Amino acid sequence: MSTSPDIAEWDSVTLSGAIADRQISCFEALDAYLARIERLNPVVNAIVSQQDPAGLRKEAKARDDELARGVRRGVLHGFPQAIKDLTATRGIATTQGSTIWRDTVPDADAIMVERMRRSGAIFVGKTNVPEFGLGSNTFNPVFGPTLNAYDQSRTAGGSSGGAAVALALRMLPVADGSDHAGSLRNPAAYNNVFGLRPSYGRVPAGGDEVFLPALGVAGPMARTVPDLALLLSVQAGYDARMPNAIEEDPAVFTRPLEGDVRGLRVGWLGDMGGRLPIEAGILDLCEAALRVFTDLGAEVEAAAFPFSPEALWENWMVLRAWTVAETLGPIFADPALRAQMKPEAQWEAQRGTALSAHEVYRASQIRSAYYQAMRQLFERYDVLVLPSAQVFPFPVGTHWPKTIAGRSMDTYHRWMEVMIPFTMANSPAISVPVGFGPEGLPMGMQIAGPNHAEWKVMQVAHAYDQATGWVAKRRPALLQENEGRSR
């Protein structure tokens, strides 16, 4: 629990309790965050499509009036929130970072947003994303780039880059995001916060097709693991509109996270037997973090990757192009709209529209075989660990790294290959901070468990965080400058 007089510094569990007990008002909480946004957001460009402060204050006053009548909507009652700009949010522009959808204002919320609104959140805007959410560098032609919380010359990561930076700079108490190829995990690592990619179906997403399992999922980001669990308890849960949604009661995520990790079996996948080129210093940080688990009584050992990495990558590429083309194919087919798409989006759409149903089905078969291999590996290990990125945050003007450790990257996402094993296995995976490299840039590592084991990976991550405390220990310099001006 925070003892800071600045409400924006409080963890979300403390904030939620203080609002519920009327120790502070929703109006006060909103004002604290709006002041932080006003001071810091112009520097990093994390929150976009900001809403009128006068209207937001009216909402906060209405939330306070509800509390006065004994009505508390939920754990997010009075929480300022900004939804990722890929996710439909009623009444607020949802651009996906594209000039094509610059003026799109949904008339309904996505299921996750609907739940957050029902729990009492106040939406102050959206968080910035790469164009169409493609790539792990948050820049687009509508709003421009989002800058790293720790070094404003570097990328924030992506595609939940705006969310991660807003969290790190205490402009939001918690944040939502989504993850196909690391979009919750990579920006969390790049900004020294936590990001959880849940199992498919844990957070129902909705859409115009509800039967085919997706590679992308929605999930929470936070500065502590209990805060992560708090937001997941709102986002998760069955919804009849999504037949593949998990039926487990989301109240399970409100339990205490404390647990004993003695005897925990940890499998370290490292660079997957030399498959992954990784910038110098990253593996060292991760291995130092693994020694924390050893000190806590866990059993850590090197684990052999149980499948052909090349086969996994090639078939992920098929499924990736197919899913992207289902969204962007109609735009790609229109020459006028195609001209507004970034080259990487055009490339994905072109590849995806050329695929046959047989090719997609075959790729899913190979993914299924991989899932079975990973299921068996999880019988030997309780959790598996990989780095959260293969490079430290790179210059923001570099669209994507072309080489790593002397090896060329043949696609715009090859440098994020380290994320694909847990995506393709449908493993819940949380990125936890592991410290900072020689240039003072953050890094993280992924802790993953078997399908539906979100609670287990959060317990493990919480034990690790209690022993390390990187978020509190290493704050962004912008926060220190902000504190100096506030005094």
Structure at a glance:
The protein has 487 residues and is an alpha+beta fold. The protein contains 16 helices and 13 strands. The chain has helices at residues 12-20, 26-44, 53-68, 111-118, 161-168, 185-190, 225-235, 282-295, 309-332, 335-338, 343-353, 357-380, 420-424, 454-468, 470-473, 477-486; strands at residues 47-48, 80-84, 122-127, 175-179, 194-197, 217-222, 265-268, 299-302, 383-387, 403-404, 407-408, 429-436, 442-448.
Task: Walk me through this protein's architecture.
The chain has helices at about 10-20, 25-45, 55-70, 110-120, 160-170, 185-190, 225-235, 280-295, 310-330, 335-340, 345-355, 355-380, 420-425, 455-470, 470-475, 475-485; strands spanning about 45-50, 80-85, 120-125, 175-180, 195, 215-220, 265-270, 300, 385, 405, 405-410, 430-435, 440-450. With about 475 residues, the chain is an alpha+beta fold. It has an eight-stranded mixed sheet, with helices on both faces. The protein has a three-stranded mixed sheet with strand order 1-3-2. Helix 4 links the parallel strand 2 (about 80-85) and strand 3. Helix 7 (about 225-235) packs antiparallel against helix 14 (about 455-470), helix 9 (about 310-330) crosses helix 11 (about 345-355) and helix 9 crosses helix 12. The longest helix is centred in the middle third of the chain and has 24 residues, at about 310-330. The radius of gyration is 21 Å and the shape is globular.
